[in-house]
Design goal:
The complex is a heterotrimer of chains A (293), B (73) and C (421).
Chain A (H helix, E strand, L loop, with lengths): L2 E9 L2 E9 L2 H22 L7 H6 L5 E3 L2 H16 L25 H7 L9 E3 L2 E3 L9 H18 L4 E6 L2 E16 L2 E20 L4 E4 L2 E4 L15 E6 L2 H13 L1 H12 L3 E4 L5 E3 L4
Antiparallel strand pairs in A: 1-2, 2-6, 3-5, 4-5, 6-7, 7-8, 8-11, 9-10, 11-12, 12-13
Chain B lengths: L1 H18 L23 H14 L17
Chain C lengths: L10 H10 L18 E11 L23 E13 L3 E14 L2 E6 L14 E5 L4 E16 L2 E12 L2 E14 L4 E14 L10 H6 L13 E17 L2 E14 L9 E2 L3 E15 L4 E12 L4 E13 L2 E12 L18 E2 L7 E14 L2 E13 L17 E12 L1
Antiparallel strand pairs in C: 1-2, 1-20, 2-3, 3-6, 4-5, 6-7, 7-8, 8-9, 9-10, 10-11, 11-13, 12-17, 13-14, 14-15, 15-16, 16-18, 18-19, 19-20
The chains are: A alpha+beta (293), B mainly alpha (73), C mainly beta (421).
């Protein structure tokens, strides 16, 4: 008889959990440990905060060319696809803008500060010939927008390959479930994160939420979200939160992120076009729920 | 008997048509991919079963690949 | 439960899915298409037909080496092996070996053979049986291969079956495809078999019985040396996913048989040399999530130009309980008789065709079964039992003739083991 075993841990700067149906505590523990190691491997490879990560080394390459391994090349290639599909709004080089926007100090930077950064932002400036990347000097990449989601999928596959037939992987709100069980997933209210808006049941798929409630500040009555437009360097007016269910967590995460980037006025139309089940919460509290029957 | 059979078929077709517009995404097909949900979960069992009924009853065949004959009929 | 609003995948989703597929953890899992496991499987089955009440067996031939009240007992050994070959092919080998012993009905007679058919009443009808000396050995081998490509499969198979008095060679080709985001499946296939009959043993010919009853036999459809028969068939079927827990299918098939279709082991049996049949079938698989069980329901309607039509309904429940799968099943079958069938075939010599084979009579049958599968990864242990009972009164149609005394009851017991690696 298989029972449910859970373990919580911290990785990629977020609370994470693994829930597995396994025949014994021992087998659940040994597989969980392998999964946690795998999550740490993703972190040490792709984190921009760790100076010896692959991403940091690329960022410090000062215009030199890097030959990437399969996994990294496929992630970069996927990010390039997101850039294209979002007309340049999803851009892994936009992280540099954080130098101007310090959301903890709630200061609006001067237009000049932002202007100075813009020449070093824009994926179109990067020479990307799969699997070779050449990042112009002073430019930086940040894979934060895809790696966590992908890692949830990778951990799920990893568990399946080690004989776990059913389970849930959650890495900081990005969820991938696999196998026969369905799992209750609560969506919290962007304005009051402790309050649940809706609960869905997910079986064999991915779930992700993007929102402007995670980091923002209010200055002179204006709500500045942490979602920055890489073309202008200024925060965007986005819906408060978008949750999406897809075949895997990476697609769910990308679609919810792109929906946010489409802005409050265009996101609904875009989401309907994509056609995945979603729940969208607007800043005025309006909810469009395309999860329920 | 025949009218009864036709009405059963009509109901089945109606259900199929009514349900026709539901889209079931690949990630919702966990249950459908189980062995016990397949048309013939145990092919050795099915082969022997078919062989015996072929030998003992007058009807045979179906919408699947047919095998060879035997001297039992 | 979630719903989607899309009719077809959007270009954005398609672009993202394609790019995502290049990622190591998101490449489609190979077993979604071609199998990745090898399986080795063995089954032993004991099939026992119940003996016939002694009072239903004709006394005509008791002293002539016939007159057994036993029927067939068959021991069956099945071996199967399947393996993937590369990423796109699979190969399967099936071997079935049977040893059959027992006796078979030669014809039906009234104890008073001079009686007229119209007077025939149930208790006077007796089976003229062979002696319990028949021993047959049949070996069948099938080789199949399937090619898996992105949206479908192509399969081919070749088979041979050999008995002392019968040989069959067969082959088939089929194609299966998926459409509409793999929600709809279509399959078509054709198959052919070429059979050679060489009847000897077990026949009443050359026994004392022939001289004794030969006088009132209508005569049969003799096989001089060897005889041939062919079978050609084709099918089309479609399946559709209706919900995350429900899939249905429907199909049509056509079979043409030609050649020596009479049973060489019957005394009164002369059948047309062609038979055209059609089947219409529908099937449903439903997953009951709260109890982790799959419900199978299948229906088949069969009709042929010998005047036979039949209904078959099969139901099964695949109930999972811890490492055990418990599968109770029920099958109901009902057929009408062939137009040339008569229980008093000895008196039908006015007709071109005649047969008193119980398998061509009007009858119904019920099979009840129970199967247990112990899933002890990577090995499955299987035991199953089945009981079959048939009778004229179980038919959907009322027969205008008395019940054939040869209608069958049998029990079947199977033990099996299956290893995946």
């Amino acid at each position: 008889m298989e029972s449910l075993y859970s373990v919580a841990f911290q990785a990629m700067g977020s609370p994470c959990q693994i829930r597995l149906y396994a025949p014994s505590r021992n087998s659940a523990q040994s597989v969980s440990q392998l999964l946690i190691n795998e999550a740490r491997r993703f972190e040490s490879k792709f984190s921009r905060y760790l100076s010896d990560s692959l991403v940091s080394r690329i960022n410090q390459s000062q215009g030199a060319e890097h030959l990437l391994d399969n996994e990294t090349a496929a992630i970069i290639n996927y990010a390039a696809q997101l850039f294209e599909q979002s007309n340049g709004l999803f851009d892994i080089t936009s992280g540099l803008l954080r130098r101007a926007w310090d959301f903890s100090s709630a200061q609006v930077p001067s237009a000049q500060t932002i202007e100075k950064l813009l020449p070093f932002i824009g994926w179109q400036r990067v020479s990307w010939q799969n699997p070779k990347i050449c990042l112009p000097d002073k430019m930086q990449i940040d894979l934060g927008g895809v790696v966590k989601e992908y890692a949830a999928d990778a951990l799920a596959r990893f568990a399946q390959e080690r004989g776990i037939s059913s389970g849930l992987i959650e890495l900081g709100g990005d969820i991938r479930v696999f196998g026969e069980h369905s799992w209750p997933i609560g969506i919290s209210d962007p304005r009051q994160p402790s309050k649940a808006l809706y609960q869905l049941r997910l079986q064999a798929g991915g779930f992700a939420t993007s929102g402007n409630y995670q980091r923002y500040f209010i200055h002179n009555g204006q709500r500045y979200s942490h979602i920055l437009n890489p073309k202008t360097g200024w925060p965007m007016i986005t819906p408060a939160g978008v949750s999406v269910v897809a075949e895997n967590c990476l697609i769910a995460g990308s679609v919810s992120t792109l929906a946010l980037l489409m802005g409050e006025t265009h996101c609904l139309q875009w989401l309907y076009e994509v056609g995945l089940p979603f729940l969208c919460v607007f800043n005025d509290g309006r909810i469009v729920n395309e999860f329920c029957e | 008997m025949k009218p009864k059979f036709l009405s059963v078929l009509a109901v089945l077709i109606a259900i199929t048509v009514l349900q026709g517009c539901t889209h079931v995404a690949p990630y919702q097909r966990g249950a459908l991919s189980k062995t016990e949900m397949s048309w013939t979960p145990d092919h050795q069992d099915a082969t022997l079963q078919k062989h015996i009924y072929f030998a003992k009853e007058a009807s045979s065949g179906g919408a699947e690949a047919a095998g060879g004959g035997c001297g039992c009929n | 439960m979630t719903k989607t609003t899309r009719r077809k995948p959007s270009s954005t989703l398609l672009a993202l899915s394609t790019a995502a597929m290049a990622l190591p953890a998101l490449t489609p899992q190979a077993h979604a298409v071609a199998p990745t496991e090898r399986t080795l499987s063995y089954r032993y089955t004991q099939y026992n037909e119940m003996g016939i009440d002694a009072e239903k067996v004709s006394s005509i031939n008791v002293d002539q080496g016939g007159g057994s009240s036993q029927r067939y007992d068959i021991d069956i050994n099945q071996y199967a092996f399947s393996t993937p070959i590369g990423d796109h092919f699979s190969l399967s080998i099936d071997v079935q070996d049977e040893v059959l012993t027992g006796a078979t009905p030669w014809t039906v007679a009234k104890e008073d053979v001079k009686g007229t058919p119209s007077d025939v009443s149930d208790d006077e009808i007796k089976l003229v049986m062979s002696g319990a000396t028949i021993k047959e050995h049949r070996t069948e081998a099938n080789l199949g291969t399937t090619y898996y490509y992105s949206s479908g499969t192509i399969s081919g198979n070749l088979g041979v079956s050999k008995e002392d008095d019968y040989e069959s060679a067969s082959g088939g080709l089929s194609w299966g495809g998926e459409f509409d985001d793999k929600q709809t499946g279509l399959a078509v296939g054709i198959s052919y078999s070429d059979d050679t009959l060489n009847p000897e043993e077990g026949s009443y010919r050359g026994t004392e019985l022939e001289s004794k009853i030969g006088g009132w036999l209508n005569g049969s459809d003799p096989v001089i040396g060897t005889a041939k028969k062919q079978s050609t068939s084709g099918f089309v079927s479609a399946s559709r996913i209706l919900s995350p827990n429900w899939i249905m299918q429907g199909g049509v098939s056509y079979t043409q048989k030609s050649g020596h279709l009479s049973d060489p082991y019957k005394a009164n049996d002369k059948r047309p040399d062609e038979r055209n049949s059609y089947t219409f079938n529908a099937g449903s698989r439903y997953w009951i999530k709260p109890i982790k069980a799959a419900v199978h329901a299948d229906y088949r309607y069969y009709v042929d130009d010998w005047g036979i039509d039949s209904h078959t309904i099969s139901l099964a429940l695949y109930q999972n309980w811890q490492k055990l799968q418990i599968i109770p099943s029920l099958r109901y079958y009902s057929q009408t008789s062939a137009s040339f069938y008569s229980i008093s075939a000895w008196d039908t010599n006015l007709y071109n065709y005649y047969a008193d084979d119980h398998r061509l009579s009007n009858f119904g049958a019920i099979t009840t079964g129970l199967k247990l599968v112990f899933k002890q990864k990577p090995v499955d242990w299987i035991i199953s039992g089945e009981y079959y009972v048939s009778g004229a009164d179980m038919s959907l149609d009322k027969a205008d003739e008395p019940e054939h005394p040869g209608l069958l009851k049998y029990a079947k017991f199977t033990f099996g083991v299956e290893h995946r690696f």
